[in-house]
Amino acid sequence: MRRAIEYQRSPCPVASTLDLVGDKWSLLVVRDLIHGKSTYGELVDSPEGIPTNILADRLKRLEAAGLVVKSAYQERPVRFAYALSEKGIALGDVLQALVRWGKKNIPGTRTLTEIRPAAARGGSGNRPGRIRAKAARAR
Amino acid sequence: MRRAIEYQRSPCPVASTLDLVGDKWSLLVVRDLIHGKSTYGELVDSPEGIPTNILADRLKRLEAAGLVVKSAYQERPVRFAYALSEKGIALGDVLQALVRWGKKNIPGTRTLTEIRPAAARGGSGNRPGRIRAKAARAR
Asked: Shortest CB distance from B108 goes to which of A2, A95, A99?
């Protein structure tokens, strides 16, 4: 029965998971949704300055994979909120492993919740990169 | 002092780790090295059929990041063996998280060690995809 399933590359769970989230951005979107962000505007406003076309594409792909659920929270103009499904929330385990590895092996890395406002660029309480993200959106 | 460190996107350990291995192939190379593969020929011969130019690029990047150590095991012609550094081996934790998530959330996925020869294509004892990988190399 299992042979009827078509895998993109192989039935290996690592390969199959990377087929869904194996890129530089998808797991950052999952990270932000886990941290309570829900709107497009909030998601685009992250330190990494995700390009808007990539954010739109990743949200679409995560939704198609059943990791993200999209729902309208406003009509005229319609606006959407994004939330993780149960499967999406379960990726928190992968994120935690990445956090542990990064903090141990890449000097100076620290989770966003560990970055105090005083350390942010400009010291205005903005998260680092917020300015860059805003500039990117203004283009 | 920490502000002197230049991060590719942000000091977030998830983002910084994905800057190194956030793609569809790098962690599969790490998976294979953890499973005891060491030569280019062994690495190219995986079920996913990694294109040779991508394998060469990923090995170079993993070596530059200090995750893989390359050493000559033969002269004339010189041939290299690849092994994980301590940092590279530590990515096993991330791989295990991906395995757990994949097995739970993508029906039918199973680790390569769980695939018995009888289940392989052609039933010849080859791993699935080996034929495809060979064909890719022959191009």
From this structure: A2
Q: What is the DSSP letter of A42?
A: H
Q: Domain extents for chain B?
A: 2-138
A119 neighbourhood in chain B, CB within 8 Å = 3
Q: What angle do CA A121, A124, A126 make, to 5 degrees?
A: 70
What is the ipTM score, two decimals?
0.81
Rounded Cα gap, residues A64 and A36, in angstroms: 21
Other Cβ atoms closer than 10 A to A77: 5
In the CATH hierarchy, which fold is given to the domain comprising A2-138?
Arc Repressor Mutant, subunit A (1.10.10)
d(CA A29, CA A36): 11
Instruction: Count CB atoms within 10 A of the CB of residue A79.
Output: 12
- Calpha distance A21→A67 (Å, rounded): 10
For the whole model, what pTM was predicted? Answer: 0.81
Q: Is the Cβ pair B91, A100 closer than 8 Å?
A: no
Nearest CA in chain B to A86: B105
State pLDDT tens for residues A102-138: 999 999 999 877 765 444 444 333 343 333 333 334 3
